[in-house]
Amino acid sequence: MASKVAKAVAQQGSFKQTLRKWVYNTMGFRQYGLWHDDCLYETGDVKEALRRLPTRLLDERQFRQQRAMQLSVCKEVLPKEQWTKFEDDIRYLTPYLEEVLREKKEKEEWEQK
């Protein structure tokens, strides 16, 4: 019985991963070499997270975005071997964004007291 449960859980996990990869592969941004965090809408929180990024990461982000804009203007996409792969897409901005949101929440809680 326990092995059946373990097998079902393993299959569910692999199904979720397969579904995540499929959804990721349908996204158009990967054809331009963009990463997930390159496409976030720049709210105030995202702008603050970007301000905190190390210079090297910010420069790389700007390069990917400029290259994507140039490709879009020319109505081209990168060769398929240069498309962003699911495994290579790093959520580089997420830790900074989570930190900003935590600080914002802490500040709101502090002001309520």
Describe the structure.
It is found in: Mitochondrion inner membrane. The protein has 113 residues and is an all-alpha fold. The chain has a single domain (29-112), classed as Cytochrome b-c1 complex subunit 7 (Cytochrome Bc1 Complex, Chain F, Orthogonal Bundle). Helices cover 64% and strands 0% of the residues. The chain is built from four helices and no strands. The chain has helices at residues 2-26, 44-52, 55-73, 94-112. The protein starts with a helix and ends with a helix.
Label the overall shape.
globular
- Tally of distinct domains: 1
**What do we call the CATH homologous superfamily?**
Cytochrome b-c1 complex subunit 7
**Strand residue content:** under 5%
Helical content (DSSP H or I, runs of 4+): 55-70%
CATH class group: Mainly Alpha
Spell out the helices and strands N to C.
Answer: HHHH
> Which fold name is given in CATH as the topology?
Cytochrome Bc1 Complex, Chain F
Distance between the termini: 52 Å
Q: Give Rg in angstroms.
A: 19 Å
